[in-house]
Write a structure and sequence with these properties.
- By secondary structure, the chain is of the alpha+beta class.
- The protein folds into four domains: about 1-40 and about 135-205, no CATH class; about 40-125, Nuclear Transport Factor 2, Chain: A (Roll); about 220-400, Elastase, domain 1 (Roll); about 545-620, Immunoglobulin-like (Sandwich).
- It is built from 14 helices and 25 strands.
- The strands form six sheets. Strands 1-5-4-3-2 form a five-stranded antiparallel sheet, with helices on both faces. Strands 14-12-11-10-15 form a five-stranded mixed sheet, with helices on one face. Strands 21, 22, 23, 24 and 25 form a five-stranded antiparallel sheet that branches.
- Helix 8 (about 375-390) crosses helix 9, helix 10 (about 455-475) packs antiparallel against helix 13 (about 515-525) and helix 11 crosses helix 12.
- The structure holds zinc ion.
- Zinc ion (ZN) binds near residues 25, 380 and 405.
Length: about 625
């Protein structure tokens, strides 16, 4: 009885969720025609971005707050205040998120994200604050109105775990209104927010990204034998989906079971039982169907694919391997807690998700091919957790959310390709590209911005395909170090072009900036522009001389250099766009020639160098 009531409630709630969350990360599986909706004004609003815009003497959050109050026009005046929300430290600097308040109440998504290097130089700043001239008209909704709305969603009060209500100002497009924001978290793990106006109307809905840390840890790791798909049975068999390589309702097809590989996993040993728990992953049961995580009395977790333990082990293995990989790159505060993983969830749907609340968790459905049988699905969802960890509370806005999908797709594809490159361009190779859904690709020729479709899954291909090109050119570790460092800088409502600038800035920080040209090249080819993208240090074919640090020159922070392979004697000159010679200088027996950006106005310049061996020209830009 209890159960059947519960079921009815679940289906009502799922209908509600589907209704209000058509574009959320509940589904990485969106085929053509899905994933689009008319975006709300708060989602299409663009952050005002600036790069390399100055320096703050002290990186302490209180100092930074004072800086923001004086530097950002929308924060000036007695009605405004600023509140510190989040902070992260990355390899190269600090990343702070602040909120704009008006007359003591928050403005919904009125935030500033500021990224500093360790010396306090402002690497980037993303301003989402609002300009308010007159007090928004109307009054704040009554708390009773909020509860009426909640009751219309949840007939059973017991199903609600947490309700949070706050008054704030909300952007309706042309104007701000007083509104109430409601956070709802229920027993099924749904966590979402509603914004209502004074007329009891829901004006906005979204899933929520907050998390409370989970303190369950253990300290005994024991090696155990396990069997996994690595990354998936089609890739290792070198075949495409079709008999006998098909789901067959999760049956023990011998050809599929033969694709399992034996691996060693570190598991926990507690009270005479081996459990799939590590410092960074905890197999859990937080979502229906109610399947208890597999445990073992011996250090042996070898299952066939029809057994529930197989998906538990598969998810556990790939998440731990991926976390170890991120740590090996030197990132020590990314998903630095045991993420909860339910390999049999989503009410049996052909779907998976990441949720930051009530504690960060991954949930994999079993419709079609079991999602946790495919490393691409596991790592895509884990990618959302990585992104949330690097830049909490910033996955909002139409291009920003597409970027999060793209990062997950890229992580999945690059991971799979590093294991086995068969059909690498297909992601969700086993879970998708079959009778159940189409999967996605990371080898798209889509160009920015004209191929944007306001569809986060289709738009994601622009970024994931670019990252795959960069990875192929400079290697996976170098590409991932640059990307993950850039991810700390992400902010609400940024464009993919802003993210491209962050990626290029990040490239300058590692490996003596040797990958800047390559990263710039692929971003430029894809249609991204500004912030030094497309300034080509095109040294191909010339072995006598190389131009380096044209980015530093563009920023005005350091000299561009012409580096010679052997001592050269000759003359270098700099010419502006009108053909005027800015200077002409000779040098003798030199291995390099430096061109300082000092005292030069913004614009395009040409440098010509002529020596006893060669004559070359390069374009330079000063911002
Ligand atoms: Zn996703």
């Amino acid at each position: 009885m209890q159960k059947s009531n519960d079921r009815k409630f679940v289906s009502a709630l799922i209908a509600f969720i589907v209704l209000i969350f058509p574009i959320l990360s509940f589904g990485q599986k969106i085929n053509d025609g899905m994933g689009s909706r008319l975006p709300h004004p708060v989602d299409v609003r663009k952050a005002v971005s600036s790069f390399n815009s100055g320096k703050i003497e002290n990186t302490d959050t209180a100092f930074v707050k004072e800086y923001l109050l004086s530097a950002i026009p929308n924060l000036r005046g007695a009605d405004f205040s600023v509140e510190y929300l989040e902070g992260k430290q990355s390899k190269t600097g600090f990343h702070y998120l602040y909120r704009q308040n008006y007359q003591g109440k928050p403005i919904y998504r009125g935030t500033v994200k500021i990224n500093l290097d360790k010396s306090g130089n402002i690497i980037s700043l993303f301003d989402n604050t609002y300009h308010i001239v007159e007090t928004p008209a109307g009054k704040f909704p009554d708390t009773d109105d909020c509860y009426d709305i909640i009751k219309s969603i949840y007939q059973e009060e017991n199903d609600i775990v947490k309700i949070f209500i706050e008054d704030l100002y909300f952007d309706l497009g042309p104007r701000l209104i007083p509104a109430s924001r409601i956070e709802l978290w229920d027993k099924k793990g749904n966590f979402f927010e509603l914004v209502i106006n004074d007329e009891q109307m829901i004006v906005y809905e979204r899933d929520m990204n907050n998390y409370f840390n989970n303190n369950r840890v253990h300290d005994v790791d024991t090696p155990a034998l396990a069997r996994v798909f690595n990354p998936d049975p089609l890739t290792t068999a070198g075949v495409t989906y079709g008999t006998p390589y098909e789901d067959a309702s999760d049956a023990d097809i011998s050809q599929l079971n033969m694709q399992r590989q034996q691996v060693t996993i570190d598991v926990a040993f507690e009270n005479d039982t081996f459990k799939l728990e590590s410092l960074y992953c905890l197999i859990n049961n937080h979502s229906i169907p109610d399947i208890v995580p597999v445990t073992s009395l011996t250090p042996d977790f070898q299952f066939t694919r029809s057994q529930d333990g197989f998906e538990d082990v598969n998810a556990f293995y790939h998440i731990n391997v991926y976390h170890d990989y991120i740590q090996s790159l030197g990132f020590n505060n990314i998903v630095d807690y045991p993420i909860l993983v339910d390999a049999h969830g989503m009410g049996g749907a052909d779907n998976s998700n990441f949720s930051s609340t009530p504690s960060p968790r991954l949930t994999f459905g079993e419709g079609g091919v079991d999602d946790a049988e495919d490393a691409d699905v596991i790592i895509h969802e884990y990618g959302h957790a990585i992104s949330y960890s690097a830049a909490p509370s910033t996955n909002q806005g139409i291009e920003r959310t597409a970027l999060d999908e793209a990062i997950g797709d890229y992580f999945a594809a690059s991971y799979s390709k590093s294991i086995n490159s068969f059909n690498w361009e297909k992601i969700f190779s086993w879970d998708g590209h079959n009778e159940f859904w189409n999967g996605r690709v990371v080898e798209s020729s889509k160009h920015y911005p004209e191929d944007l479709q306001s569809n986060l899954y289709k738009d994601a291909e622009i970024w994931s395909s670019t990252m795959m090109q960069i990875m192929d050119a400079i290697g996976r570790e170098a590409a991932d170090e640059i990307l993950i460092e850039a991810m700390y800088n992400l902010a609400t409502n940024i464009t993919m072009n802003d993210a491209a600038c962050l990626l290029l800035q990040s490239a300058q920080s590692f490996n003596s900036a040797q990958h800047v040209y390559t990263v710039s090249y692929f971003l430029d080819q894809r249609g991204f522009s500004g912030c030094g993208i497309g300034i080509h240090e095109n040294n191909t074919g010339n072995t006598d001389v190389r131009l380096i640090n044209s980015i530093g020159f563009a920023e005005g922070s350091s000299s561009a250099e012409l580096r010679f392979n052997s001592p050269q004697t000759g003359i270098a000159e700099l010419i502006d766009v009108t053909g005027r010679i800015i200077f002409s200088e000779s040098f003798s027996g030199s291995l390099e020639y430096k061109i300082s950006p000092k005292n030069l106005s913004s614009g395009i310049y040409l440098t010509n160098v002529t020596t006893q061996n060669f004559s070359s020209s390069y374009k330079l830009m000063k911002w």
